[in-house]
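Inverse folding, one chain.
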């Protein structure tokens, strides 16, 4: 399994942590799964999240592979390797934090650090049957994380339980404090998804005993498109120069080349959508604690199928909008009636990551009883 770019043993004997190779570890090059960065100089210092993990007594077990330059969601990478999905080897591991999710699912790490710019923590977590959190934008330090500048990217943890996600947040974010939840007010966002996924979501909510009411997010589709415009523009700014090397893989090179066509007018329109969609979510969450919806509209594609669409951007339909808005969002693993992996996404108010994780824990514990 091509999970690790390099195995390591740094730190003490606390929780084992795998680190996505867009996050600096001192003495190691940050290659982001790209041949174009194969000769990158070793990082001179740890990313802040890595330093916090080591200070908390964690043991860094390795740097994980990813979809090249974190610009794709299948996790397929023919240069640094495509991690095998540990539970469903015929399916994609998801991306871009493919190796991080696979390391956790394979039991090689207690939690992993990934990055999420358009679903890149939540998608691989859902594909590999584990939990993944995109924190509130700006809450977790991005110092020492590629790309340097972003208005949508977040460092987030992946783990096999909500409890371990909370432990990870305590380690990487000193402001995080756990909380409990008794009767959360839940809004179920109306979306079009595979009926079997909807049934899995319904069963998970019913088992937890929580009550919910149906709500609409009218701006969801526009926010998805706006999120694509923003990631395209920001990735061209941060990574576009690598096209000159001629060493970027075909699928990512095509995306970067196409992304260069995004206009200032399109970015201005995307920022208008960002403001409107953020306000729409905030208004809903005045009367509700969290919103829930499937993590993905369909089941993860087979590896062979995904090779025909390596970016598979449609997988991010329900997750990318919350990168645009900046709200915290966690995916809870579900098993559908056909035995395939699915996910329940829980979205909360900005700064209330602990409440989002408390609801995730309640849903997941009820389902396992």
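Residues assigned per position:
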């Amino acid at each position: 399994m091509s999970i690790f770019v390099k195995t390591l043993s740094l730190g003490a004997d606390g929780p084992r942590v795998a680190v996505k190779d867009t996050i600096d570890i001192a003495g190691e090059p940050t290659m982001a799964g790209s041949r174009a960065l194969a000769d990158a100089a070793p990082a001179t210092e740890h990313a802040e999240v890595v330093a916090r993990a080591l200070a908390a007594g964690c043991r860094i077990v390795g740097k994980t592979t990813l979809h090249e330059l974190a610009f794709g969601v299948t996790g397929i990478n023919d240069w640094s390797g495509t991690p095998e999905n540990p539970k469903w080897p015929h399916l994609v591991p998801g991306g871009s934090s493919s190796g991080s999710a696979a390391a956790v699912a394979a039991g090689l790490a207690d939690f992993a650090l990934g990055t999420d710019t358009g679903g890149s923590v939540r998608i691989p977590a859902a594909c590999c049957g584990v939990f993944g959190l995109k924190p509130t934008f700006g809450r977790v330090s991005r110092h020492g994380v590629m790309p340097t500048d972003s208005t949508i990217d977040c460092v987030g943890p992946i783990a096999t339980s909500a409890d371990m996600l909370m432990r990870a947040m305590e380690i990487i974010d000193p402001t995080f404090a756990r909380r409990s939840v008794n009767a959360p007010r839940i809004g179920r966002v109306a979306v079009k998804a595979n009926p079997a996924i909807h049934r899995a979501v319904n069963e998970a909510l019913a088992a937890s005993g929580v009550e919910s009411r149906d709500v609409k997010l009218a701006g969801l589709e526009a926010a998805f498109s706006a999120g694509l415009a923003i990631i395209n523009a920001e990735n061209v700014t941060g990574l576009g120069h690598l096209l000159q090397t001629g060493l970027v893989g075909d699928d990512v090179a095509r995306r970067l080349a196409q992304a260069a066509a995004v206009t200032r007018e399109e970015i201005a329109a995307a920022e208008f959508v960002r403001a409107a969609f953020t306000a729409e979510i905030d208004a809903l969450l005045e009367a509700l604690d969290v919103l829930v919806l499937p993590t993905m509209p369909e089941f993860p594609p087979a590896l062979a199928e995904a090779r025909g669409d390596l970016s598979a951007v449609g997988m991010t339909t329900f997750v990318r909008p919350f990168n645009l808005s900046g709200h915290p969002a966690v995916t809870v693993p579900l098993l559908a009636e056909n035995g395939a992996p699915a996910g329940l996404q829980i979205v909360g108010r900005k700064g209330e990551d602990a409440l989002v994780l408390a609801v995730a824990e309640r849903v997941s514990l009820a389902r396992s009883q």
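The chain has a mean pLDDT of 96. The two ends are 32 Å apart (CA to CA).
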